[in-house]
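Can't paste images in this forum, so I'm doing it all in text. The chain is below; anyone willing to post the predicted structure tokens underneath?
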Amino acid sequence: MRELEHFKDHHREANIFTARVIITFLIVLCMLGILITRYYSLQVVNHENYATQSDKNRVLVQTIHPKRGLILDTNGQLLADNRPSYTVSLTPENVSDLEITIELIRELIDVSDDDVATFRKALKSGRRPYQAVPLRYRLNETEIARIAVNEYRLPGVEVEAQLVRSYPQPFLFAHTVGYVGKINDREWQKFTEEEQERYKGLQTIGKIGLEKYYEDELFGETGFQHVEINARMRVLRTLEREPPVPGKDLHLHIDQRLQETALEAMNGRRGAVVAIDVKTGGILTMLSTPTYDTNLFVTGISHRDYNALTGSLDLPLFDRTIQGSYPPASTIKPALGLAGLDSKSISIEHRIFDPGYYKLENDERLYRDWKRTGHGWVNLHKAIVQSSDTFFYDMAYRTGIDNLHEYGKLFGLGDYTDIDIPNERKGLWPSRQWKQNTRGLPWFPGDTLNVGIGQGDALATPLQLAVMTSTLANRGVRHQPHLVKMLGDQPIEPNVVSITTNISDRHWDAIHKAMYDVVHAANGTGRRIGQNIAYKMAGKTGTAQVVGIKQGEKYDSEALKERHRDHALFVGFAPFDDPQIAVAVIVENGEAGSSAAAPVARKLFDAHLLGEYTSLAPGKSARAIVDNGVHR
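Text version of the structure:
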């Protein structure tokens, strides 16, 4: 034993022990250094980053959508409103099985396949995490109660009140005010990143009419709030809030009473009515018939309702006021007569003999007058009052298409009016260059004759005809038509597009007097509406051909299908001495402007000038036209 102790090296063992202690200490020290370094990184260097990530686990950013601006008529009547509606919504992150939950809801309340399809689309569109997605709108009290009673079976499902767009008079302003509708995939993909952020969680956007044109102003500015939530996603408190800015209200020139008068006067017929304030260009009435219920589109229209609208031969979705391109017919004769006078192609005293037709030299074709026996000796005044086609054939030939085209542009023919609603068509005011470019053909003298009576290739929208008539009433001052009178608290100033100053007062007087006698003279084509009238007015009737009539044949209304009969037109302004309102009316297939279109204009003049408004008769509304497809 002593020998073993003799061989022990205590000094070496002490060194080994010391080395091991030092190594262990260094390892511990290194580990402690790493721990301190990591702690420093977490608590000092990356403190804000990890604090933010931590907050995201308990702090949720919620978008607060602004209240959409209202739309009101000139008297403050609501045309577009926001009304509370109870909606059942699902938060997918809180739903264990989405399909089963949807089926449970469908057992409790009526949820259509269209509702489910819309819900699925909304899930795929941009939304924030834990943001509820609406499944069905407009729940009644019974449906709300059923959901509430079964709440324990429906985690992640809630009933909430939302503001939904509502149109108190949907049929009256379907095309003008327009509507909001579901944001579709095509629209969403066209959004910029900023727009996608703006519309996250929002289901609707302006689709047509004023709702689309003024979308940015009506929408307002989105707000947000940071809320603290618990593990069950229940909101505990609001940490920060940036309130939204409500959209601006639109105050229109349109008078709802005048719009009702126009709809009643149209009596279920297809067509359009436009009335414009001569002094400002403000639109007083803008009606396209037949019309439809815009409320159907707000929360998603059903396939059945949509197919009924798109499948109707009467085309209720088509806005005839700005998209309907019609031959202006005789309504443009006053403007073209002014062109003849100012270009010195004719004089006020110039006259020709009208045998009932016009014939070009070395041409066998006879260009017929509407009156087969003719009007005898005719000057410009008589030609407008009695609407002699033969005189205007001759005048157009003398004036030439180049002059006619230039003068037509002064009245806004063939060009956009730039009214403040989208999808306007520009019509067509033909020229040599236009025909060469579009058809590769030269211009022929016969083309000029057709343009001279507002037929052939000439096309105009009812809005353009109203602007033309207003420009005639203003003696060459043309305003840009506009619907909005005030945007928020900011008035919209009238905009003068052009002023024609080189036409003599004598020529203006001649045209105005002829238009006056159209209504007030015993032989005027519009004399029916001039009877028992309490004010003086000026006007011009028109009848636009829909289908061609062969040379030598007579127009036979009974032999034609109803939709192939002539269109009836009328334009006019009043009072004659101090024009305030200009009106353009077209009644599709109404045949005679004097009997079909002119009485509609007379009712509008009486309403605006005398206060003789007419309300819709009970049970007699545009709804019947849409639902039943009736044309009267």
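Residues 625-632 have pLDDT under 50 and may be disordered. The first strand starts at residue 59 and ends at 64.
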